[in-house]
Amino acid sequence: MWIKKLVFRKILLLLVILVLGGITVLGCTQVGGQPKGWSGVTMADGTLFFGSMKGKLVALNKSNGGRLWEVILETPKSSGGFGCAPASTAAVIYGTPAVAGDLAYVGGYLYLRNRAYGKVYAFNTTSGALRWVYPRQGNLDGSIVGGLVVTGGNLYFGASNGKVYALDAETGDWKWDFPTGGEIWSTPAIDRDTLFIGSFDKKLYALDVTDGSQKWAPFETEGAIASTPVVYNNTIYFGSFDRHLYAVDATRGNLKWKSEIEAGSWFWARPVIFHNIVYAPCLDGKVYALNTDSGHMVAEFDLGSPVSSSPVLVDSLIIVATEEGKVYSLDTSNNQERQIADVKELDGEELVVYSPLLASEEIVYVHAQTKKYGSRLYALNTPTGVKAWRYPPPGSK
After folding, report:
1. In 3D, which of 277, 234, 274 has the Cα closest to residue 256?
2. Are 105 and 148 in contact (CB under 8 A)?
3. Of 78, 248, 278, 365, which one is least surrounded by beta carbons within 10 A?
C-alpha cells in the first residue's frame, strides 16, 4: 500500500510541475480526443450542474439524472500542422460551477499554442444559452483551476496567473483584480465582506470583497496552498503542501494553531467542520479530525487511498470518497468509519475520483473520471450506498 501511495504522490507532483510550468496533459493524452477535468457538482432549484470531461457544462434533473441540456464551452480548431495537439482545444473544466439567479457560471482552462489560458462563461440555467464571457475578446493570461463563487452581485475566482478577480455577476464586467505572488488553484471562501484565498506563493490572503484591498498582511506557511479554506467561528481553517493544517484568526490574520501532526502528504481537499471538530482529508489516504480550538487530534481515519475529493456532511456523517472510488461514512458521534459504496464496482469500470462531493438530503453525488468513457456521475443513497441513478445512463456512450 505504501508503494501505491508513493507512486500516486510522484504522479501528482509531476502533474503540478507540468501545469505550473505551462505544460498541459492535453493533446496526445486526451480522453477520446477531448479534454480532461475534475469539476465538482452544484445544485439550484432541483437542477444539477457540472463540467464533463468532454469540456461541456451539463444540466441534469436532480431526481432521475435526466439531461436537461449541455453546451460545449469551446469548439476545437485544427492546427493544420503535424503536431498531435490542435491549434486550440475545447475548454477543460476543473472548478465547480456556481449558480445565482438565472445564470450558471463556469471557468475554463484553454490550451492555445503551447500556453494555458482561461475564460469565464455565464449561461442561462433554463436553456443553456450563453449570456456573456470574460474577457470579451481573447482569454485571460492564466488558466482557471479552482471554482467560482457568487455573492452580493459579484463573481469571484482565482487564476493561475496569480490574480484574484471580481466581476459583475449579471454583466461580466470587470470590477477589480488583485495580484498574489503565485499560481492560484484554490476556490475563494467568502465570509461577510472578506474573501479568503490561498496561493502557490505559500500565503493566505484576506481581501475586501468591495475593492480587493488587503484586510491584513498575508499569512505565510511553508508550502503552497491549493486547499480551499473554511471559515468557522471567526477562524480560517486550511491545509498546506507543507503537510500541516492551520487555524488563523479571520479578523487579524494571526496564527491560532498549527497542527502538531505532520501528514504523510499534501492537504488538497477542502476540510469539513462539525461540532467543533475539523475533518481534513489528505493525499496520504487519511482524514484527520482535530479540535477546532486547540488543534489537538481527536481521531484519525486511514482509508487506504489518497483523498483529493472534498467531503460533505450528511446529518452527522462525514461522507468521503477516495481516489480509487470507495465511499465512506465517518460517524462523528463515535468516530467509526464504514464503507457504504465502491463506485468502481457499480459498473465494473476503471475510474478515479478527484472531484468534490455534493450532498442533498440523503443523496450524495460522486463525479468519477473514467479513462475510456469520460465522466460518470453517480447519485448514491448515503445510508445504504445503493445507486439511485447514473449519468450517462447504462448503454449510453
Report:
1. 234
2. yes
3. 78
263 CB contacts (<8 Å, ≥6 apart)?
243, 244, 245, 282, 284, 286, 288
Calculate the CA 68 to chain-centre distance.
23
In angstroms, the Cα distances linking 368 to 25, 50, 52, 167, 375 are 18, 12, 10, 31, 6
Q: Which residues pair with 378 in a beta bridge?
A: 366, 390
> Is the pLDDT confidence value at 309 over 70?
yes
Torsion of CA 158, 163, 169, 172, to 10 degrees: -120
Mean pLDDT over all residues of the chain? Answer: 89
pLDDT band for position 89 (cuts 50, 70, 90):
low
Note the pLDDT of residue 35. 54
Q: Is domain 1-77+86-187 classified as CATH 2.40.110.20? A: no
Report the predicted TM-score, pTM, of the whole model to 2 decimal places.
0.90
The C-alpha cell that represents 121 in the structure block: 462563461
Cell 464533463 belongs to which residue? 52
pLDDT score, position 85: 41
Class of domain 312-397: mainly beta
Burial class (CB in 10 A: 0-12, 13-18, 19+), 97: buried
Any idea where the domains of the chain sit in the sequence? 1-77+86-187, 312-397
Identical fold at 1-77+86-187 and 312-397? yes
Q: How far is CA 114 from CA 89, 100, 303, in A?
A: 11, 34, 38
Nearest to 274 by CA among 329, 199, 345, 209: 329
Percentage helix, strand, coil, to 5, in the chain? 5, 45, 50
Decide: helix, strand or coil at residue 7.
helix
Maximum CA extent, the chain: 61
